[in-house]
Design brief:
The chain contains two helices and two strands, in the order ββαα. The chain has 84 residues and is α+β, with helices and mostly antiparallel strands.
């Protein structure tokens, strides 16, 4: 391993309040454990380039993929499905 990540001085502790968290949504972890950048995942139409996993997406993302410039006319916006 490179010495890039090794500390020169031993016993250095970083207080919890000084540690920085990674912003949510920056990375996506597939069920197989592969880590993928969210921007790359979106560019690849929500299919992981690492393992081919198809990420579950919502209707807004699906419409963005299907329709040019997100232009479509929505009918019956208030319609609710019913289980017969």
């Amino acid at each position: 391993m490179s010495s890039w990540f090794k500390r020169k001085d031993k016993g250095i502790q970083t207080p919890t309040e000084e540690k920085k968290d990674v912003p949510k949504g920056l990375w996506y972890k597939t069920p197989s454990g592969k880590i993928v950048d969210s921007a790359e995942l979106k560019h690849n139409y929500y299919v992981s380039p690492e393992d081919g996993y198809h990420v579950r997406i919502g209707s807004a993302e699906y419409f963005e993929i299907l329709f040019d410039n997100n232009t479509f006319k929505e009918f019956d916006k208030d319609m609710v499905s019913k289980d017969p």
